[in-house]
Amino acid sequence: MLQQVGSRRMIAQFDYRYRLIFAFFLVLLACVVIRLGYLQIMEHGLYGLYASDQHDLQKKLLPTRGRIFLRDAQDGSLTPLATNRLSWQVYAVPRDMPSTIIPNLAKELAIALHKNEADVITQLTKRPDDPYELLAKDVSTDVVDHLRSKNLTGIGFVKMTARMYPERGLGGQLIGFVQEDEQGVMKGRYGIEGSFEDVLSGVSGSLIAEKDASGRRLIFGDTQLREAKDGSDIVLTIDRGIQFKACMIIQEAVKRHQADDGTIMIMDPQTGAVMAMCSAPDFEPANYGETKNLRIFNNPATFVAYEPGSIFKAFTMAAGLDAEKINPKTIYNDTGKEEIDDFTIRNSDKKAHGVQTMTYALDESLNTATIFVQRLLGKDRFRQYVELFGFGKQTGIGLNPEVKADISGLSKKGSIFAATGSFGQGLTTTPIQLVAGYGALANNGKLMRPYIVAETIHPDGTREKTKPLEVAQPISSRASRLVTGMLISAVENGHGKRASVPGYWVAGKTGTAQVPKKNGKGYETDVTIGSFAGFAPANDPRFVMLVKITRPRDVQWAESSAAPVFGEMAAFLLSYLRVPPERTVKEVKLPPLPTMPLATTTTNTVQQ
Q: Are residues 115 and 172 in the same domain?
C-alpha cells in the first residue's frame, strides 16, 4: 500500500515537472514568435536595409544636401546655383583577388579610371589581406557600367551624391564650395555653402544595435534606426541676370585697368535684399582645387576693410543736414587747407575755392568742407552718426567671415582723427557697410539690414521667408531728400559725370582713397582705391550700388575707374528692371580722362 502511494507521488511530481518544462518552452516559443513577428512587421524596413546593398542603408543614414537657387526677376523662375548629382566610388577587395589576375585587372582599372597602371598595382598588392581599398571617387555612371560589364573580381561600387555647380561665372566667392573633411564628411566652405552649412547639410541618421562581447550584433537585441533628415533648399535674393552682368562688368574693369581686384555690390534700399555681389579675381566652385591663392576664397564684400575716401563725405553731409547745422546752400570760406594738431590737410586739387556752398563743395569733393561740417557737429556727435549708419559693426547679412572694420580712431584724443574721418580717411569700412549706408540715404533715412537668403524651403515643403528688418534711422526723411539732391548735383556737375545714365537722375559720389603702408606709417606712393557709390532713379530708388577698383594702373581717379563701371551697370539695371525714363535725354559732354599726378600733402590726403 505504501509502495503504491509512493509511486503515485513520484508520478505526480514527474507530471508536474513535465508540465512546468512544457509551459516554459511554450512561453519561450511564444516569445520567439512574438519577437520574430515584431522584427518582420514592425522592423521590416530596418532588416530590409540589412539585406539590401550599401547604398540603401546610406540613403537612410546620410542626408541629401539642400540646393541653392537664384530667382530670375523677368519670369520668377528658379535656377539652381548649387545642386546634387549621382556619383560613384570604386573600391577593391585585395584579399579576394588571386595574384595571377592582378596585372590584367590593374590594366583595365587604369584605363577606365585614368590612373597610372603602376599606381593601381601598388594599391592592389600593398596589403594582400586588405578587405577594402578605395580606388577612385566621383566616378561617372558610364565608367561604372563599363567596369561592371567586365565582371572584374574583387571590384565593388558605392553609389554617392556629389555637389554640382551648373552655372559658371556667377561668383565663386558668393557661392563657396563643398569639401571633404578629415572624417570623409562633406562640409560647406566659404560663401553660401559655408555660411549656411547648418541649413543645407541636414542631420545625419544613426543605427544603434546591441552587440555581444565579440562585437557581433545580437539577433534579439534592441536595434534603433534614426533616419537622416535632409537639408533645406535656399533661394537667394540674388537675381540671375543682374549677377551675371555684374560679374562680367567687374572682371572686364579689373582687366582693363590692370587693377589688383574689384568689387561690385547692388542692393534694394527699401528692403535690404542683395541683388548682386561679385568680385574679381574669383574662382569656379566646381574647380576650387585649382585656386593657388587661398585668400581668393574670402568674399571681399564682407571680408575686406579699406579706407573709403570721399564716398564717405555723403554721410558727413547727411549728418550735418539731419542735425540742422547746415543746408545745401550753407556757405563757408575754403582756404584750400586746414591746420589741425600739427598736421596740414589740403584739398586734392591743392586749390583754394573761396566762399562756396555745401553743394558746390560736394561737387568738387573739397576736404575742407567736410571738416567744416564735422566741427559744427562736434567729435562725439559726429562719431554717433557714423555708428548709427552701421559702421564699426557687422551688418548681419549672414555671410561669413564678416569683419566689423575699424572706426576706433574717432574715439581718440585730438581733433585730427575726426577731421580726416569726415572725408573717409583714418577709418575703414567694408563694401557691404557702404552699400547699406547709402541705402539709408536713399530710403528716407532708414537703415535696412542687408540679407541674401530670400526663402528657405524645408524638406517637408514648408517655406520660411526672410522679412526685411529696419535696424536704425540715422537721419530724417528730410535730410535724406536734401543729401539726395546734393548727390544728384555731384553726378551732374561734379566728378561723377561718368556714372550718369541718359534719361535718369542718378545720385552718387566718387572716392579716390590712398592705401596705408603695411607698417602703419603714411601711405603708399601712387597707390589708390577708386570707389563710386550711388542710387537710381534718385527720387524713387530701385537699387543702390557700390563699385570698388583697387590699384588701377592706367588711371588715377575714381571718376575714371569706378564711376564708368557704375554708369554701365546702372544703365543695364534701369533697362532690366523696366524703369521708364524720367527726363529728356541729352548728350553729356565728358572731360578727357584726368592724368594729373597724386596731390600729396602733409597727411598724404587724396580724396575725390
A: yes
